Amino acid sequence: MTGRPRCSLNVTFHFWEQPLEQALDGAVAAGFRTIELLDPYSLGIDELEGQLHRRGLSVDVINLPMGDFYAGDRGYAGDPRRRTEFRAGVVRAAEVAERLAVRKVNALTGTRVSGEQEAAQRRCLVDQLGWAAERLGQHGVRVTMELLNSIDTPGYLLDSLDHVEAALADLDGRVGFQLDLYHLRRAGYELLPTIESMAPVTWHYQIADAPDRTEPGSGEIDFEAVLGAIDATGYDGLVGCEFRPSRPDVDAFAWMDALGAEKA
Questions:
Q1: Which structural domain, as residue segments, surrounds residue 194?
Q2: How far is residue 97's CA from residue 240's CA, in Å, rounded to a whole number?
Q3: What is the CATH number of the domain that holds 188?
Q4: Position 87 pLDDT exceeds 50
């Protein structure tokens, strides 16, 4: 990204209560041609590919299978008991990514598991993400992982930058960071220095205002400053809009003109 930020839309979050087909229609109506999919596995791959093609939509980022997100699951890369399930999910994600020409796959790593030592879980997630990076890399796909704040997701394995940086160091450049401004703010981090310090390992950015994960300008984050900081890193990818409108009658994208952002 140089100059004007180019943004994709995470349709799963923006159209939270709608079936995927309606969410895709909503993205087109809002003026987007590039989206993110939290869960691209709810439709068969042939049907999903057709739905996207008919609407002229492309996909920038998908997630690895993570369990039942709506029931509170947040992945299982760090669960030693689910190694086989995780790797089967990677194979499935590779098929989806290849068919849809996706180049980034994000991995939610899961929460602390009762009866398992935390150190063993962290070793497991590094091993699993390394395997995922190798498998998906064969298709030209890069793997990222992200910090989730402990307010929204108690017990998440990567709930601090220390944990993220330790895992990334163990992975030695094979996996990158998905920097989510909302989660960082809710976790108590100063955004501008964090954007700068994490820039060398950040492969994707997502935005939402805090504290309510709503559109920029509805909360406490200075988006002119943070988007400028992202631009200063030299990042040239898309910025994912992962938020819900603050009110049913609000123009959730009015901020884009004011900040010089574009819909990709």
A1: 64-220
A2: 17
A3: 3.20.20.150
A4: yes
